[in-house]
Design a protein that fits this description.
This protein is of the alpha/beta class. It is 47% helix and 14% strand. The chain has six helices and four strands; from the N terminus they run H-E-H-E-H-E-H-H-E-H. It has helices spanning 2-5, 22-28, 45-54, 64-67, 70-82, 96-108, and strands at 13-14, 36-38, 59-63, 86-90. A four-stranded parallel sheet has the order 1-2-3-4. Strand 1, helix 2 and strand 2 form a beta-alpha-beta unit. Helix 3 (45-54) packs parallel to helix 5. The longest helix is centred in the C-terminal third of the chain and has 13 residues, at 70-82. It is globular and about 40 Å long. The model has no long low-confidence stretch (mean pLDDT 94).
Amino acid sequence: MIAAIEPYDIDWIEQPIAADDLDGFRRLRPHTSAVIMADEAVITTGDLARLIHDESVDMVNLKLMKSGGILPCQRLATQAALGGLDVQIGSMLETSVSSAAGYHLALAH
């Protein structure tokens, strides 16, 4: 499916692999030049370290609620940036207070 939509010059493909299949990103990478974003697959620093080591994604979508709050998410954002990945701070179904915290983290990052 990715090959079929590549001619449309899309910005990125978000989480095309099951969240618990980090090897899937590594297997996909040689078959596409599309920008690949990991989302649900990145919860811990270990998850992110593996994706960085494998050079299997180009971007990550981090969420405060998914990663345990402001400080853990900030650590992931720093780790991702140091690993050469673009970072997007996203949100889930949250209150305006939680969304504001994510917005502030994105601005600080």
